[in-house]
Backbone:
């Protein structure tokens, strides 16, 4: 029973000592340059030096050592676990923040430029609106003046039409009077001609009668 317990404890210890990490992402700690070795001890050969902030992929851990692989996949080796961190190194965070700050400044400059353009357009629109309002006021005043003039013109036209109608009626009356006068003249001339003819006829008859009387007298005395 004790043997089985010892074997179980040894197996658990080995499992804890050599635990795979499934290629988790880690970074070399800040302000350090560490060695990448061929094995989990300082006696193993140095493969290369890893600079601070360099990203690596964790394969497994064994005690104070961790097996890592470079992010480009070219090299693999062991490093001290205490020299690895899971957070983004300060240098990279500073670089990222600087890039973000630069981007924000660029966007701010663009926003300020856009705002300046919008403000300029707003001022131009306000100026154009002021001009349009003045033009509208002038047009309204001209319209009122034209309206008053048109009303006066309509009154004058109505008066003129009435005068023309009265003149036309007067002309018609004049033509009627002229026709009547011409008719009266013609009737007078006819009357005068008839009177003259009657006088002439009466004179002729008187002459004839007087001639007969004279002939009778002559025949009587002879």
Residues:
């Amino acid at each position: 029973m004790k043997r089985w317990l010892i074997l179980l404890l040894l197996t658990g210890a080995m499992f804890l000592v050599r635990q795979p990490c499934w290629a988790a992402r880690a970074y070399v700690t800040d302000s350090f340059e560490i060695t990448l070795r061929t094995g989990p001890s300082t006696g193993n050969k140095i493969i290369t030096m890893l600079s601070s902030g360099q990203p690596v992929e964790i394969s497994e851990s064994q005690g104070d050592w961790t097996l890592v692989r470079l992010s480009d996949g070219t090299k693999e080796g062991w490093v001290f676990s205490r020299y690895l961190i899971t957070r983004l190194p300060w240098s990279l965070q500073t670089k990222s923040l600087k890039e973000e700050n630069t981007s924000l400044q660029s966007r701010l400059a663009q926003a300020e430029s856009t705002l300046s353009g919008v403000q300029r357009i707003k001022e131009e629109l306000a100026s154009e609106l002021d001009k349009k309002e003045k033009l509208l006021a002038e047009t309204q005043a001209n319209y009122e003046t034209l309206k008053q003039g048109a009303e006066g013109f309509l009154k004058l036209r109505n008066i003129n039409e009435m005068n023309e109608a009265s003149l036309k009626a007067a002309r018609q009356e004049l033509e009627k009077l002229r026709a009547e006068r011409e008719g009266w003249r013609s009737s007078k001339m006819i009357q005068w001609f008839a009177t003259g003819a009657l006088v002439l006829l009466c004179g002729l008859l008187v002459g004839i009668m007087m001639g007969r009387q004279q002939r009778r007298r002559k025949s009587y005395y002879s």
Q: What stands out?
A: Residues 10-22 have pLDDT under 50 and may be disordered. The first helix runs from residue 2 to 17.
